[in-house]
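name: query_chain
kind: protein
chains: 1
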Amino acid sequence: MKKEEKQQFTLRITQANPTELVVILYEMLLCYLEDAGEALGQEGDSEGGHFREAVRNARGCLNELLNSLDYKYEPAPTLHRLYMFCIRRLARGEQRRDNAALDEIRRVIVPLHDAYQKIADQNSAGPVMNNSQTVIAGLTYGRNTLTENLADQGLNRGILA
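structure:
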């Protein structure tokens, strides 16, 4: 994942409601799967360092999705089985350095992402993170450059006082 993508995900996380956080986790997982697939195709990654790092990060996203399930509600057991399937396929793909296993995970995650995206649009809950820094972004008078200005949040930004 590129530095710009990490910054974009970080910004989105600070402004996200609970459902949007799940969507962001799915998008991060898909991004790491793409990174792993690209690392498999690179000849310079003969030791698999980039591939293993991308797989480790993808596994982290899956574990976070798994740990965030609330079993009081009906879809949780089904999602648990799907996430466990993805974790097993990821382990197989890592062991065999197989892109087909990564594709299987994508086929499971993309429909889930799309469904949660539709739900997130309907969720009117506020951001999960309170007291986070406000970012105001907009186009400047330059040539298609995006400028972000951080609003002063005081001395206790991120700390509940």
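note: Residues 34 and 121 are 25 Å apart (CA to CA).
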